[in-house]
Write the structure tokens for this entry.
Amino acid sequence: MSASPAVFLVDDDPSFLRSLTRLLRAAEYTVAPFASAAEFLRAHDPDVPGCLVLDLAMPGVNGLEVQDALAAQGVERPIVFLTGRGSVPASVQAMKRGAVDFLTKPVTESDLLGAIREAFRRDAEGRRLREERAEFRRRWDTLTPREREVLRHVVAGRPNKQTAAELGTVERTVKLHRSHLMAKLKVGSVAELVHLVERAGGVPAE
Amino acid sequence: MMHASTAVELASAARWGQVPIFVVFAAIVLFLRRYFGTGRLWLAAMALGTRLLALLLGFAFQPNLHLRQLAVRQIEFLGQTVATPHGVASPWIWIGRASALLLVAFVVDASAAHHRRGDPDARRRAWRVGGSLAFFVAAATVYDAFAQQGVIESPYLITPFFLVAVVAMGAELTNDVVRAADLSRRLHESEQEVALATDAAQMGVWVWDPAADRVWATDRTRDLFGFERSDELTLDGLLGRVHPEDLEALRAGIERALAERRGFQVECRVRGPGNAVRWLVNRGRRDAEAAGGGVRLRAVAVDITERRRAEEEARRNREEIAHVSRVALANELASSLAHELNQPLGAILSNAQAMRRLLARDGADVRELRAVVEDIIADDQHAAGVIQRMRELVSVGEPRLDDLQVADVVGDALRLVRRELTDRHVTLDAALARDLPLVHGDRVQLGQVVLNLLVNAIDAMDAVPPGDRTLHVVAGRADGGGVEVRVSDTGSGIREDVLDRMFEQFVTTKAHGIGMGLAISRSIVEAHGGNLWARNNPDRGASVAFVLPVEGGAAA
């Protein structure tokens, strides 16, 4: 991982924003504070790892709308919501859309830091997964159409003989394709290959 | 004179005869001046002056001012032989005639002026008295001239003509005497009626004579102030029964009434018999100069204890309703207020925890620690402010009157609904003038009115899309003087049938409302001497506004 993770903090209350920034910095986090959702959306860099700590109720664009805006941009930044009151419908909505946690103000240090740790973990996990998928995709792009056909049959668990019959070729050719694609995808065994495809979310559609 | 036998005797008699004529002239002038109150003084002066001149000249001329070569002529008159002067008229005779003409002119002028006053009595009096006097003087003069020239055989006689005047005047004076008696009877009746009316209205009448420092008072007044019938009253004695807190106002009112010749009206408490405190209103004025030339202060005192008690009860009822309504408001805003409180509490907690971490390090930055502590203090004060406002909202306090800046009152109310605005996607557009004249009022109650209007306006926009919800709040000078606060929304407006009744109690369009807010708001504003109204905006939504009078200026 290149950069160290940062906590993006958005709250319209200046004194609350300042105190939380101070606490997180004292806890050795890198903090990027924003006084409004609009400001955050303008300045936000999705490539910086880390999480978003977001006030739910703000004038103008509120927390749920920020969540929607990020989702619309395809940004998968884990979000910890803060709220002044236990608003059940809003929290359900937020959690359904993948919020890490939903904390009620005044929030304790341990709850907040715990939620941030979890969010960081998810962010790192998500980034690793996305990286793996991207890598798989890069390798996938080097495969010939014939090799991709063979891969589908291998992952589906069909014997070479059946594959050859279905593709209208001989078993030897299928074996050759298989060794080529395993070399290109940098896997040593069929088991490894299946695992790779699973992590990548299946065989990409053509 | 009629029996004079020689010319000398006759001349002497004629000479002295001028004296009663002058007296009659003077009497006519004085009578008309007093009876009619009219007549030009210069005319009177000229008539009497020429008469006096004739009288004085009479002694200077021999044998007679009016006649040359006076002779005595004996004539038969009414079966008697009387002496009349006879001779050639001298030009001086016109002095006497001019005097008579001037007197006629004076009488006619005075009568005409009296006639012009217009009322039927004055007209009749002018015709009868003025007419008969003018006739008397003119007829006597003409008769005298005819007799002197021998046109008619008669001595100088003025009595018959005078009789006409006397009869006419007598009739008129008799009439006046009868009328005076009638007036006196009616005055007595009217006094009885006034006494009955003042008694029935439970009014006490009192009159102060400052020169003698004596107060005359009706029995009712004595009862009200707790004096015996026989007590001698002075103003200080009267004021001695007035509650010390009200004394200054009453004294000032009386002094102003005396100095500026105007009325006064002061409500005061009086410790009456049995130490019972009663409320009296004293209304009075400095009287027009009394007959003796002295100044009088006349006043009535009315017992308004019952009215004050009713007012006090109404006020207490209003307080209670206002309180219930405030509690309902606080209830409605409870979660907003809790949020408002969580904000500083959360900041304090985070700051304290941050400080704990900073202190755990080696070589903590003292400047940073100080900044943290400053923030904690500020947030604590902010939290205390929120709690104070919440407490005021639900408090049952006696109303307290202060000089208030309306923008502050509106600003405080806006802070209470800040969260509500955020949560319900309402955009705030506030224009609060900070340099308005102060209003005299109760901060909590006026804040409640504003809060009510704000909450209503926010509620009114629930049905419109979030992007269209704007709350306009304006505090500024009212057109007709005073200070105006206007709260407008962009909701769907007020239905016409509701618009008429919306200030009544228990009228509500809200599912959870108790229908008290606007009724109590209006009554609070009216108790502050202002007024409150609502109307639909020309484009969309509705506005509710109120105007309050300012210190030292009248409201609209």
